[in-house]
Amino acid sequence: MLETLTDNWDLFVEAFRTTVLLLIVSGAISLVAGTLLGAMRVSPVPALRTAGTAYVTLLRNTPLTFVFFFVAFGFPRLDIRFSYFAFAVVALSAYTSAFVCEAVRSGINTVHVGQAEAARAIGMTFGQTLTQVVLPQALRAAVPPVMSVIIALAKNTTIASGFGVMEAGAIGATLNERGYPAFDAMIWVAVGFVIVVLPLSLTQRRLERAVVRSR
Amino acid sequence: MRMRRMAVLAIAGALALSACGKDSEEEDAGAAPAPSAATGVTLEGSPTFDKMTSRGSVVIGVKEDQPNLGYKDPTTGEYSGFDISVAKYIASKLGFGEDKIEFKAVPSANRETAIQGGQIDYYVGTYSITDKRKEQVSFAGPYFIAGQDLLVRKDDNSITGPDTLDGKTVCSVTGSTPLQRIRDEYKGAKTIEFQKYSQCVDQMLSGQVDAITTDDAILLGYAAQQPDELKVVGKPFSEEKYGVGLPKDDKVLRDKVNDVIEEMETSGEWQRIYDATLGQSGSTATPPPLERY
Fold first, then answer.
1. What is the pTM of this model?
2. Residue B29: inside a domain
3. Are the CB atoms for B248 and B138 separated by under 8 Å?
4. Domain assignment of residue A39, given as a range
5. Which Pfam families does the annotation name (chain A) (predicted)?
6. Number of domains forming the structure of chain B
7. Which of A208, A209, B91, B134 shows the greatest Cβ crowding within 10 Å of its Cβ?
8. CATH number of the domain bearing residue B213
9. How far apart are the CA of B8 and the nearest CA of chain A, in angstroms?
């Protein structure tokens, strides 16, 4: 059991490093893109609202594997050539942004509409209202659902192993081929994911505490 | 008198019903290598065989995406290839005709689990015999020897062997031994993993990868499918002994399957199967010596 881990330590380290890298890069992109999308969906410009809604409807209702397939097999046909890591980042970010958007929007909905009206009444622009009044409060309420989305992203990264990226999702197959029992390998991969996700849960708790203090 | 005739008729009818598989085989025995089901096979002390007998059929794990080896026709659902023919031959000698075989596509990563869990009775699908795997399952054979090779685009003359892979992108199935070998021994190459060889072929045709690596037997099948686009380099740099995967502790069945393979090789049936499947790409081969244990 333990030797499955110790004999293949290099593989575990390499694979999980890629997983964490995927998580950090696509997580960061998703947070920014998702927040922008959320802003689009509540903006006073109908075209932006429609575009935001269409994006969320399309990406949130599509299986992630399909998004991956579209990117990893479709893009090369259109002569769009990146590394498979970049393809994976594109697929994961495109998908996760839709969920971040909805989490952020749910946060925005917790801010009383009177606040936005008050901000407008004292002459703030839409951008100012959003960035200085609504979003700071909205993001606080959005912390738990957004963290859930990011934790889901951490686990979704395993799909990249089927599309050219050697990460934690590929450990099972690799060890199996080396002749180690599949079950042991999976247990250690699961342990690895608990270790990756634990800091995210802790971050959520700290962020929530920070919110309580500032209110 | 009358009674006797009726009895004879009844017996004849019963025979015709029970042995119809055998009848049809005798008619086209010369044409296709469709072996007849042996009758009255008994294997004392083989739990796997007992299970097959009580089920009345045999469940064989195979590959479904390797042309000329183990391939499932997507339109008809028919399985064909060298491994499939070997699997059928073994089944027939165990007493199971073609209509008593259920093929189950099991990808490489799930082979041991499927054998240990009893989802399949035995496995025939480019399954390399290794000492490490013998800790989990057992092997009859080898019935074929393959070697790791490279599949490249037809117009690509820059890759002539594993030493020319510096800076090239090499694709294979996730975690597979050939890929691990490239990663360990030819560090200049960039490795890419997909779940199926057919996906690697797709990526190579769209220019994202430069070479695909695995056993030559598998690659030859893909080259034969698209001879205008793909070619095999043809310099094998490893030795893979294909065996029949069996439950670890079933020595009785393993010995029996070894006997069957030996008979298949000496009777010329092996050569016939080879010529009808893998040999179609123009390659030749001879059966390897058995490694009984």
1. 0.76
2. no
3. yes
4. 18-167
5. BPD_transp_1
6. 2
7. B91
8. 3.40.190.10
9. 57
End-to-end CA distance of chain A: 49
Residue of A77, A172, A178 lying closest to B132 (CB–CB): A178
Residue A35 belongs to a domain: yes
A178 contacts in B (CB within 8 Å)?
A: 132, 177, 180
* Rounded Cα distance, B261 and B254, in Å: 10
How much of chain B exceeds pLDDT 90, in percent? 53
pLDDT digits (tens, 9 = 90+) for B196-247: 888 999 999 988 999 999 999 889 888 888 889 999 998 899 999 999 999 9
Q: What does the pLDDT look like over B55-100, one tens digit per residue?
A: 999 999 999 988 889 999 989 999 999 999 999 999 999 999 989 9
Residues 85-124 of B with CB under 8 A from A: 108-110, 112-113
Q: Report, as ranges of residue numbers, the positions in chain A whose pLDDT lies below 50.
A: none
- Buried-state track A110-125, b at ≥16 Cβ within 10 A, e below 16: ebeeeebeebeeeebe
Residues B198 and B157 in one domain: yes
Cα separation, B59 vs B90, in Å, equals 12
Taking an 8 Å cut-off on Cβ atoms, the answer to whether A173 and B177 are in contact is no
Which amino acid, residue A150?
Answer: I
Chain B partners within 8 Å of A87 (Cβ): none
B248 and B258 together in one domain: yes
Q: Which residues sit opposite B213 in a β-bridge?
A: B150
Q: Which domain holds residue B166?
A: 148-232
Total structural domains within chain A: 1
Using CA atoms, how far apart are residues B173 and B126, in angstroms rounded to an integer? 13
Secondary structure (H, E, C), B192-206: EEECCHHHHHHHHHC
Per-residue DSSP letter, A163: B
CB contact (8 A) between residue B202 and residue A84: no
Cβ–Cβ under 8 Å, residues A27 and A150? yes
